[in-house]
Amino acid sequence: MKRKAFGLVSALALAAALGVSACSTTTGGASMTPPAIAPAPGPQAVDSHTYGRPEIARVVDVALDLTANFQAKTLSGTATLDLLTAPNAGEVILDIRNLDIQSVNDAAGQPLRFDIGADDAIKGQPLTVHFPAAEGDGRRKIIVRYSTRPDAAALQWLTPAQTAGGQKPYLFSQGQAILTRTWVPTQDSPGIRQTYSARITAPADLTVVMSADHLTPEGEAAPNGQKTWRFRMNNPIPPYLIALGVGELAFAPFDNRTGVWTEPSRLAAAQWELEPTAAMVTAAEKLYGPYRWGRYDLLVLPPSFPFGGMENPKLTFATPTIIAGDRSLVSLVAHELAHSWSGNLVTNATWNDFWLNEGFTSYFENRIMESVYGHDLAVQEQVLAWDGLQDELKSLPADDTKLHLNLTGRDPDDGMNTIAYDKGAAFLRTIEGIAGREKFDAWMRGYFDRNAYRPMTTAMFLDDIRAHLVKGDARLETALKLDEWVYQPGLPSNAVAPVSHAFEPVDVAAVAFFQNKGPASAIPWSGWNTQQRQRFLSWRPQGLAANADWLTDAQLGDLQSTLNLANEGNSELIFAWLQIALAHRYQPSVVTAEKFLTSQGRRKFVLPLFQTLWNEGDWGRAQARRIYAEARPLYHPVTAGSVDALVGRP
Ligand code: BES
Ligand code: ZN
User: Fold this and answer.
1) pLDDT per position as a tens digit, 247-296
2) Residue 361 CA, closest ligand 1 atom number
3) What global pTM score does this model have?
4) Whose CA is nearest to atom 15 of ligand 1?
5) Which of 114, 161, 231, 591 could form a disulfide with 212 if both were Cys (CB 3.0 to 4.6 A apart)?
6) CATH of 50-248, one of 3.20.20.10, 3.30.70.3490, 2.60.40.1730, 2.60.260.20
């Protein structure tokens, strides 16, 4: 397609109407300017988790005007959607779930007819808006007036008691994978990129932040003791990245383009802990090209945040459980930052290709860690991930160990396990090892440039790497086993286990303590870093049944007191300790578990610990029920939903 002949917008509109990707040679590229309108999702990737029919009409911009009501726990107001329509399109279909729709109007304020279809437990409902069909391709605006429900799955409304300060309420959103539709009526598919803007009105003593440019850093006075905050995101993004935080917030800079937001009483600790962020952005750019989003800030949330981190553009959301006091858990920042390329720039077209987001990001994360902290620490983290992968491969049905998934009819949340992360990263490391780092890095950088602001599928990835890395080299093609890696379960034979020499003394000490029943005082714990300590606590005997008792109370007691594990502050180490202690029904660890499970709601910690208790028969189940009854009110719907399915609703 010749761009000159049409002009950008009409070329894109035509391509949209045809349902093909426009301007494959003119968007993205090395250019830093994002397309004003994203290319249409290609016909090669049909997202079974959206009702949207982007080939008929698709949303290209969302403008929110919402008021946060902390008493009612609602966001209410309007979403003005900018649509690109095919010839004769007479309707647009949006995704909604658990929303109250009051009206839909056109740009002139005339009401439009709409209907809401049957409710699907996973996808929610289609909201179909009808309008008079126009000739030719077109743009039109619709204005949806609506309100969220208090139990919107994307939103958590925290009482003051659930915050660090204890004085003010708090609200945050979590859109990935398909939860944005519970607070924004739009086409909620990762392949349908949209720009967005927002006006958010909230009580004047709170600060509003979003994953966008902050146009009003101090907020603007609004009636009834409120303030309005305005935002704009000019880069087209998948809707799961629209994100909002409201609370008593303060900001501290790391350098002139990075910094951290959090509650005032937590600011100094977060600023110190996460200061390496500035160096990480520089390291990431050196690896795979310019950071294209302007600022890179972090928002450290209250402890109920259900994930480690969420890569909301310009503003990563993070759990406070990474504030360890010694910067030992900052790889999480490297991970979320890496998503600014893999995920936010080049995006999985559907959740079946989640590995393209998380596998690339886990690989890139480790390269950032290597740049900033050196090869040794990076390899330690590779080994921890590799060992986790071996466990995951054993515990999952074979189909779920493929990189390319088929999640049709399933909640994408269920299909998202660590395979995408750790098998994905192992795959890219295998390619790097075979092709050589220089060649591999040149390809990866080109991949981000060529595909910037586009949806990506596994098949497109294979085409890209064959065209730009393999280039017809038959021996390389055979050595890589590309199709086997992405389409077959398990690990292909060319996978290479990473080896860390830093773990050798750890393994010696683990055998001495766990197997030969030596004293805990012989463990050189204080000389180890967090990753070595994680390695030690995750040591397990080979070839024993998962529920075998291979440790005595006396050994566990020696470990707990000698290593002072009851007072451990590092969340990863508390977790690793509890996993081994609870699996042996070590009663003194139950208070530690109770404290941990009622003071943070990160699903990665919470769910496995409840599972471990659950596996321990009547003893464990009674503990699990008791602790969950106390903890559940703290948890985000995402975490509570997962634990409900295991323990049951208290
Ligand atoms: N994008 C994910 C979080 C996510 C995945 C949310 C799927 C909803 C559905 C984020 O980048 C992530 O992977 N977070 C990890 C931390 C990371 C260091 C592995 C997490 O939350 O544990
Ligand atoms: Zn991730």
Assistant:
1) 999 999 999 999 999 999 999 999 999 999 999 999 999 999 999 999 99
2) 11
3) 0.95
4) 308
5) 231
6) 2.60.40.1730
